[in-house]
Amino acid sequence: MAEEAKEIEEKTGGGKKKFLLFLALFALLSALGVGGYFYFLSQGQTKKEETPSIPPEVGIMYKLEPPFIVNLADPEVTVYARVSVTLEVANQEVLNEVRKKEPIIRDAIIEIISSKTSNELRTPEGREELKLEILKRINTILTKGGVRNVYFTEFVIQVE
């Protein structure tokens, strides 16, 4: 009986040792995990701090007046678009050229808008595509630089 008690004591003592070993291993892995998390988190912050984003300099704004009122290319119904356009240019020299060539630029914009259907212009993607098309066309007209961006300050589509 004494021998059996010793064996039971050794077995339970061994179980306690395994439990303590498991607990120590778990604590070590947890500490490594938390340390790794904070290490990588701090690395991401330093990379962001190294390359601060510099907002682009806003150019000179020029609003084309009056707004454009154009028939759209819808085949079954009469649809009008009223669009106010503002151009962003890089410098005064480009602005002077835009003013000088404004009738040519307005004609190009009217031609582009009137070639679109209301379905093409109702979506944000369609309006972005229109802006890009207007930007490209204006920049082919100008020789002393280019327009940086095209902004719609009013955009209304009306079905009659």
What is the compact description of this entry?
It contains 5 helices and 3 strands.
Per-chain topology:
Blueprint: H1 2-50, E1 60-71, E2 79-89, H2 92-100, H3 102-114, H4 118-121, H5 124-141, E3 147-159
Antiparallel strand pairs: 1-2, 2-3
Helix pairs in contact: 3-5
Can you walk me through this structure?
This protein is an alpha+beta fold and 160 residues long. The protein folds into 2 domains: 1-54; 60-159, Band 7 domain (Tetrahydropterin Synthase, Chain A), CATH 3.30.479. It has 5 helices and 3 strands. It has a 3-stranded antiparallel sheet with strand order 1-2-3. A hairpin with a 7-residue loop joins β1 (60-71) and β2. The model has no long low-confidence stretch (mean pLDDT 84).
Defining key terms:
single chain; 160 residues; alpha+beta; Tetrahydropterin Synthase, Chain A; three-stranded antiparallel sheet; 5 helices; 3 strands
Query: What structural class do you assign from the helix and strand content?
Result: alpha+beta
- Quote the distance from N terminus to C terminus: 105 Å
Query: What is the H/E order?
Result: HEEHHHHE
Q: What would you report as the Rg, rounded to the nearest angstrom? A: 35 Å
CATH architecture of the largest domain: 2-Layer Sandwich
CATH superfamily of the largest domain: Band 7 domain
CATH fold call of the largest domain: Tetrahydropterin Synthase, Chain A
Biggest sheet: strands, sense, closure? Answer: 3 strands, antiparallel
